[in-house]
Amino acid sequence: MSETERQVEALLFAAAGPLSEQDIADRLPAGSDVPTAIAALRARYEGRGVELAEVAGRWRFQTAQDLAFLMTEEREEPRRLSRAAQETLAIIAYHQPVTRAEIEAVRGVQASKGTLDVLLELGLVRMRGRRRTPGRPVTYGTTDAFLEHYGLASLADLPGMAEMKAAGLLSLDLPADFSVPNPAGLDPEEDPLDPHEAPEFHTDFLGEAEAGR
């Protein structure tokens, strides 16, 4: 094992979260070949109880998936999403950037403001920008936390409908014409949000909460 491999291994084991290649390179001596070291470590740990995995463009050591059952009693029970939240998250993941009205059109029911707020609070969804259409509605997309939670390297790795249901992310029969989104930046028909702007969605929700409704 090369010295660079040892250094990368030490950093990844000690890190509190996934690290990008640039994060690792910033901590190593100048000229260190981080991509080669990562590739070597990934091969070295393949098939072992701990493996090197890429999530959201970053790297971390994690328990091999086939051994996850051993950790069941030691894991904190995750907060379970309601069916409405699961369906909303699935629609956002496959249709992003998507507006609230578009979410309602796919689900066939009115989107609860509380449901969207839960997804925003958990960091699985973020506000991306405003659609260049009348009313300039806010659009939503998934976050790196979404990719990390479901163990995806990028949006291009989103599973098929059957796999989504098996993973517990999807529990309804949505249209079969879902397409994997382009993980690039803003849509050409989308304007960035002003950081000082209070989207009407949050304003409405907070207003209802303060009124006790």
3D architecture notes:
It is built from nine helices and six strands; from the N terminus they run H-H-H-E-E-H-E-H-H-E-E-H-H-E-H. The chain has about 210 residues and is of the alpha+beta class. The chain folds into two domains: about 5-75, Orthogonal Bundle (Arc Repressor Mutant, subunit A), CATH 1.10.10.10; about 85-210, Winged helix-like DNA-binding domain superfamily/Winged helix DNA-binding domain (Arc Repressor Mutant, subunit A), CATH 1.10.10. Strand 4 and strand 5 form a beta hairpin. Helix 1 (about 5-15) crosses helix 3 (about 35-45) and helix 4 crosses helix 6. The longest helix has 13 residues, at about 85-95. It is elongated.
Task: Please render the helix and strand layout as text.
Elements: H1 3-14, H2 21-27, H3 34-45, E1 50-55, E2 58-63, H4 83-95, E3 98-99, H5 100-107, H6 113-121, E4 125-131, E5 138-142, H7 144-149, H8 161-166, E6 190-192, H9 200-210
Antiparallel strand pairs: 1-2, 3-5, 4-5, 4-6
- In DSSP terms (H or I, runs of 4 or more residues), the helix count works out at 9
Average pLDDT for all residues: 77
What's the number of extended β-strand segments? Answer: 6
- Sheet-strand content, in percent, reads 5-15%
- Lateral arrangement of strands in the main beta sheet: 3-5-4-6
Could you state the order of secondary-structure elements as H and E? Answer: HHHEEHEHHEEHHEH
* CATH evolutionary superfamily of the largest domain: Winged helix-like DNA-binding domain superfamily/Winged helix DNA-binding domain
Number of domain modules? 2
Please outline the major beta sheet: 4 strands, antiparallel
InterPro entries: ScpB_csome_segregation, WH-like_DNA-bd_sf, WH_DNA-bd_sf
Protein name: SMC-Scp complex subunit ScpB
Biased composition (Basic and acidic residues): 193-213
Keywords: Cell cycle, Cell division, Chromosome partition, Cytoplasm
